[in-house]
Amino acid sequence: MTENLSGFHLDRRTALAAGAVAATALTVAGCSSGSNQSASAAPNPGNGNAQAKKQDDDELAYTKDVPVGGGVIAGDTVITQPTAGSFQGFSSTCTHLGCKVNEVTNGLIKCPCHGSSYHLDGTVAGGPAPRALDSKAIRVDGDKIVSA
């Protein structure tokens, strides 16, 4: 047993169980979904799997960083450009168990946890995801993609 500063006794098993409960609570608290909208703008080629950086509260990425036929992940938003000039936004939360998707490659948005993948329009390409990614409202403002 160990003793903390208040004189409370805590054994290793109890401490590990409390840590597991806390980690689970943090994971559940991180799950969210978004609203339904997309935006359009002039096409700009970019690299295949760039991670977009958020510049301020609304700015998600630059249009040049979102490749035609690909996408980027900016925080909790996946931004894709399935066809030239058509930008779409989605939640980065997988609809299977709430893990965060972590890459956009070869025309697919991929989740590392259980192998789910999504097409660039957010629809399920491969399970176990039960439904499409939630849409997130974005818009193009000049050469920037921002939250709408």
UniProtKB/TrEMBL annotation:
Q: Which cofactor does it need?
A: [2Fe-2S] cluster
Q: What does the protein in this record do? A: Iron-sulfur subunit of the cytochrome bc1 complex, an essential component of the respiratory electron transport chain required for ATP synthesis. The bc1 complex catalyzes the oxidation of menaquinol and the reduction of cytochrome c in the respiratory chain. The bc1 complex operates through a Q-cycle mechanism that couples electron transfer to generation of the proton gradient that drives ATP synthesis.
Compositionally biased residues, Low complexity:
38-50
Q: Which GO terms describe its molecular function?
A: 2 iron, 2 sulfur cluster binding; metal ion binding; monooxygenase activity; oxidoreductase activity, acting on paired donors, with incorporation or reduction of molecular oxygen
Q: Which PROSITE patterns match?
A: RIESKE, TAT
What ranges does the record give for the region Disordered, renumbered to this chain?
34-58
Q: Could you tell me what this protein is called? A: Cytochrome bc1 complex Rieske iron-sulfur subunit
Task: Give all residue intervals belonging to the Rieske domain.
Answer: 67-147
Name the keywords, alphabetized. Answer: 2Fe-2S, Disulfide bond, Iron, Iron-sulfur, Metal-binding
Q: Which domain of life is it from?
A: Bacteria
- GO cellular-component term (any): membrane
